[in-house]
Amino acid sequence: METKVINKRAGRIIADVLMVAYFLFALFPIFWMVLMSLKSTDELFTTQFVFKPTLDNYHAILFGDPRAAAGVVAKQEFPRNFMNSVIISSGSVIVSLIVGVPAAYALARYNFKAKENLAFTFLSFRFAPELVVIIPLSVIYRKLGLYDTYYGIIWVLQLITLPLLIWVLRSYFEDVSPEIEQAAMVDGYPWWRIFFRILLPLVRPGLAAASLLAFVFAWNTFMFPLILGASQVQTVTVSALGYVSSAQAFFNRMAAASVIASFPQMIVALSIQRYLIRGLSFGAVKG
Amino acid sequence: MAKLALEHLTKDFGNVRAVNDVSLEVEDGEFLVILGPSGAGKTTTLKLIAGVERPTSGMIYIGGKPMNAIEPHHRNVAMAFESYALYPHYNVRDNLSFPLKAPGRKFSQQEITRRVEEVAELLNIAPLLDRLPRMLSNGQKQRVALGRAMVREPDVLLLDEPISHLDAKLRHRMRTEFKALEAAIRATTIYVTHDYLEAMSLADRLVVLKEGTIQQSGGPHELFVNPANVFVAQLLGHPQINLVECTLQRTNGALQLVSTDGAIKLEVPERLRGALENAGIDQVIAGIRPQHLGVVDDHRPASNVFTGTVYVYERLGTKGTLTATVGAHRLDVLTSIEESFAIDEPVSLTIDPAQLSLFDAKTHKNILFN
Q: Number of residue pairs across A and B with CB atoms under 8 Å?
């Protein structure tokens, strides 16, 4: 009896220790990044933990470098790049929602020719490495005038966000019994009211989880904005690279930029964490 | 309140014909029961009337107006689904008031509250009004589904197996309650069930459906006494009607039915003689209800008496059911509760030939319906 209790307690302690170990392992790069962002360039490559923290890097990327030597990162692009990232990521998610929700509904509800092929085609967009399509795409984009525009980047990011939304939401819609919709029709509601009052609330966890993930993927994307965009639509992922050049390497500023760039994802993730866990596991398991 | 008419209604799902040429008129305020086994097309018929499924061909009229092109939400039809189809994210109160809040229906807030509480009271779900559907038992869900259909005054009320998921006791209670509810439901009602007791007890008129085709329609007692075919005869009544394949024999001008194994001999009753002669067939299936068979003590051979052995005897509180082996047949006999039988004991059975039903052995149709 007593040994059982002790065993149980020992088990819990071991579990806690393992959890902390994993926590340190997973968060160490982030911790290191934050640390770097607070160091001056001289202290950057020392391993001593005692240093004088400075906000110069943040100041530099947000408002310009007070001690800048001429010719080095003349204009402060970061706030603008950050806004670009926000516009492109949210834009991608919004377009994916507008297109993906009806598509997911249709794939869940209606039987039509080559339905599974179509669904698989959407999914297969995620299979192809971006490098395979990027060169022809950039040629096409230049011809069409989509190069270095928000529309262009948002469009191409549908390759990443749309399949995710369609596949998660499809299984959610499949879980809603068609008879619930039929009941609402008989109860006197036209289809679009049923969609907003019955269907959307029922798939909301999936909607939240898929939108968040799509947002994060869009935010993190690097290759598409790098090749298909230039100064007009530069995102933070691409511009962070700009702090390191052959002339001078501002790893500390790059770190500061990365820290700020990770805020939106963290805020979104924490605020709908509840949905994220439920959302991705619920839709997958059919009752 | 309105009259409902179906004309040559047909619905195909791919290669499967779910509803086959159904024509039906339901009078204003009538309580019609559709009875059939699962897969008979009962639910599909209701969904066609509600408009959530579109007919392949045929017409639907409500109050004399053709409904085929009318969207479900403009039909003023209410339906309780067998799967309940409650809105999972609304509590019981919101589920019940949902049809009242539909666009185009102008009910005041007080009126909505009044009606919801009234119907909740009627169905004994008043204490559950603030619960979500997932917190309810199946029986409670079914009553909420029923309440949602009854809360407004529809032209036509469609009830799909509304008490099938209740346990046997509660089902019996709900059946009697339903009988009482019929007075409160003033709408033209179609009630679908696979339970013949529900059908017999509730129906003003009964329609038997098999594989999408109407087998017979009429008063419940009429169908019980004069089933149009073997299928209807078997569907109504428990224990099931006994079916004995017989050959028609003439001896000295008298008509006699002899079972194929020779063990059962029946005189053709006067009532059926003419029809049998007209039909000109000599292979028939005799349908004998268990309540029309009796046990006699006298084992001497006589007309309409045949002997066998006891296979099983069940005493079920108010009645006994004797299953006897007679030749190649197993016959069910209803007996009074006082009697008792031992297994394999010899037993003589007698039949009241006037109560026989005879069916054509080929077409399975009642010879009276030719």
A: 64
- Evaluated on CA atoms B179, B181, B184, B190, the torsion sign reads negative
CATH of domain B4-228: 3.40.50.300
> Does some domain include residue A287?
no
**Of B71, B88, B102, which has the smallest distance from its Cβ to A187's Cβ?**
B102
Which of B15, B73, B82, B159 best tests the A interface by mutation, with the highest count of A CBs <10 A? B73
Q: How many Å apart are CA B278 and CA B255, to the nearest integer?
A: 13
Give the total number of structural domains in chain A.
2
The per-residue pLDDT for range A15-30, each reduced to its tens digit, is: 999 999 999 999 898 8
Q: Give the span between the Cα atoms of B20 and B38, in whole angstroms.
A: 15
Residue ranges, comma separated, of all CATH 3.40.50.300 domains in chain B are 4-228
Full domain range(s) for residue A56: 2-63
Asked if CATH classification 2.40.50.140 holds for the domain at B242-369, the reply, yes or no, is yes
pLDDT per residue as tens digits for the range B185-215: 778 999 999 999 889 988 999 999 999 999 9
User: What interface predicted TM-score (ipTM) does this complex get?
Assistant: 0.85
Token code pair at residue B175: 């059946």
Interface test mutation site (partner B, options A111, A112, A175, A186, max chain B beta carbons within 10 A):
A186
Give the orientation angle of helix A56-63 with respect to helix A251-271, to 10 degrees.
Answer: 80
Instruction: Tell the burial category of B56 from Cβ atoms under 10 Å away from its Cβ (0-12, 13-18, 19+).
Output: middle
Which single residue is written with the structure tokens 């990521």? Answer: A89
Task: Report CB contact under 8 Å: B71, A190.
Answer: yes
> Distance between CA A159 and CA A154 in Å, rounded?
9
Largest CA distance in chain B: 81
Peptide bond into B239 cis (omega under 30): yes
Instruction: Decide if A185 and B102 are in contact by the 8 Å CB cutoff.
Output: no
Give chain A positions within 8 Å (CB) of B48.
none
Residues in chain B within 8 Å Cβ distance of A180: 85-88
Q: Provide the whole-model pTM.
A: 0.81
